[in-house]
TrEMBL record:
InterPro entries: G_HFLX_dom, GTP-bd, GTP-bd_M, GTPase_HflX, GTPase_HflX_N, GTPase_HflX_N_sf, P-loop_NTPase. GO terms for cellular component: cytoplasm. Keywords: Coiled coil, GTP-binding, Magnesium, Metal-binding, Nucleotide-binding. CDD domains: HflX. It comes from Chenopodium quinoa. PROSITE patterns: G_HFLX. Mg(2+) binds at residues 174, 194. Residues 285-311 are annotated as: Disordered. It comes from the Eukaryota. This is Hflx-type G domain-containing protein. Residues 161-377 form the Hflx-type G domain. GTP binds at residues 167-174, 192-196, 214-217, 283-286.
Length: 409
């Protein structure tokens, strides 16, 4: 870190210091020493929040995997003030475990055994393996459930399609899914209120039933550890028939949020066609346009990418792992002032303005989902027909030797 700015909110009550950049393990250790408080960088904070909001077994497994992978990357030895190498957050002296004594190192006498660092690394690797195996089980169960839903769809023609509601964290996804499905999903004005995908049945204006799936919120530069750990959950999104992208139209860094979501979708393997077919929902239209966005999500997104020039530091009170404190950026001047509709490049995207709170635009959104699914069905049928036709052709035509690379004498 070169230049740093520190904003300390309610220092007396502060349990941890949050730094909005990705710190190296050494930087983190030095700051913890200087401030005598745990320091969380961007990745650590996000993992902390995921952990706090994980209620189902699946979400807990995924959050733990992300946490241990993060912990592994933080395992360092540093030289303490007395010149000795120390280890651990409080700087405990390095210890030697019984494992490997006599067999490790170079011979019996010089065998250093296993250092605390190695021991921790081994424990993490073992735990990681177990977690991955358990997550794989979850993934399989999800695949079976999805197949079951599809099968049910075939029986209940015209089909039980899945519509995944995606978007930046705090955009209003859960509120929207609740409003559309007359059910109550947990929503809150905090980051990552939802970390488990929840599926709700909704009847469209045509009478067709679909499954709406509320998903985990995305964020700029979603840490790789989280994408990997939450693969099973994110698979729901990649496998959905249609995506509905919810945007908080009052967010000042709206373009950045949109891009961050598109980036994550690409990273998890969503096809370009599915992204093109996506419906955009410009939510929170009841809120005053371009109002100051004091959400932590906005702050995180807006500062993103400036770490080199001006590492932004701020603090947050962490209560039982949940960030309840809103953090304000020192300067939000770089925020865009335009609303979503002023960006001509996105004008071609099917969109609807909604308020999940007042209900404005919800009927229109359901109609759009209906229309899009009809369009997708048609496209699928026609590509199916093309496939069947080409299958028929292949059946009856003799193989042309030159096409399959057979040498002809
Ligand atoms: N004014 C207004 N507030 C909304 C609207 N939709 C959602 N909110 C509020 O925005 C906050 C976040 O809503 P959530 O539904 O939890 O957002 P989310 O996208 O599910 O968030 P994560 O699960 O954290 O990704 C809550 O305080 C909601 O009450 C809206 O249309 N208008
Ligand atoms: Mg949610």
């Amino acid at each position: 870190m070169r230049k740093t700015q520190i904003e300390v909110l309610k220092q007396g009550e502060m349990d941890a210091v949050f730094v909005n950049s990705i710190l190296s393990a050494i930087q983190q250790r030095n700051l913890e020493r200087a401030w005598e408080k745990p320091v969380l960088d961007r990745v650590g904070l996000i993992i902390e929040i995921f952990n706090a909001h994980a209620y189902t077994k699946e979400a807990k497994l995924q959050a733990e995997l992300a946490a241990i992978m993060y912990k592994k990357s933080r395992l360092v030895r540093v030289r303490a003030s007395d010149g000795r190498y120390t280890f651990g957050t409080k700087g405990e002296a390095e210890v030697v475990s019984a494992r490997g004594r006599g067999s490790g190192g170079r011979g019996f006498i010089s065998g250093a055994g296993e250092t605390e660092l190695e021991l921790q690394r081994r424990r993490i690797s073992e735990r990681r393996k177990r977690l991955l195996a358990e997550i794989e089980e979850v993934r399989k169960t999800r695949a079976v459930q999805r197949a079951g839903r599809r099968k049910q769809g075939v029986l209940d023609a015209p089909g039980l399609a899945t519509v995944a509601v995606v978007g930046y964290t705090n955009a209003g996804k859960s509120t929207l899914v609740s409003a559309l499905s007359d059910s109550d999903l947990y929503s809150d004005d905090r980051l990552f209120a939802t970390v488990d995908p929840r599926v709700r049945g909704v009847a469209l204006p045509s009478g067709r039933k679909v499954l709406l799936s509320d998903t985990v919120g995305f964020i700029s530069d979603l840490p790789v550890q989280l994408i990997e750990a939450f693969h099973a959950t994110l698979e729901e999104v990649a496998e959905a028939d249609l995506l509905v992208h919810v945007l908080d139209s009052s967010a000042l860094n709206l373009e950045e949020q949109r891009e961050a979501v598109l980036d994550v979708l690409r990273q998890i393997g969503v096809s370009g066609k599915k992204i093109e077919d996506m419906i955009e929902v410009w939510n929170k239209e009841d809120k005053e346009e371009n109002q100051q966005n004091d959400d932590l999500s906005g702050w995180l997104g807006s500062r993103n990418g400036n770490e080199d020039e001006d590492d932004q530091l701020c603090s947050s009170k962490i209560l039982t792992g949940v960030v309840d404190q809103k953090i304000k950026s020192l300067n939000e001047s770089s925020m865009k002032e335009d609303g979503p509709d002023t960006h001509s490049e996105f004008k071609h995207i099917t969109h609807v303005k909604t308020s999940a709170v007042t209900g404005v635009g919800l009927q229109e959104l359901l109609e759009l989902i209906d229309d899009k699914l009809v369009q997708i069905d048609k496209e699928q049928h026609s590509s199916q027909r093309v496939l069947e036709k080409s299958g028929f052709d292949r059946k009856w035509r003799p193989i042309q030797a030159e096409k399959v690379g057979i040498a002809v004498e």
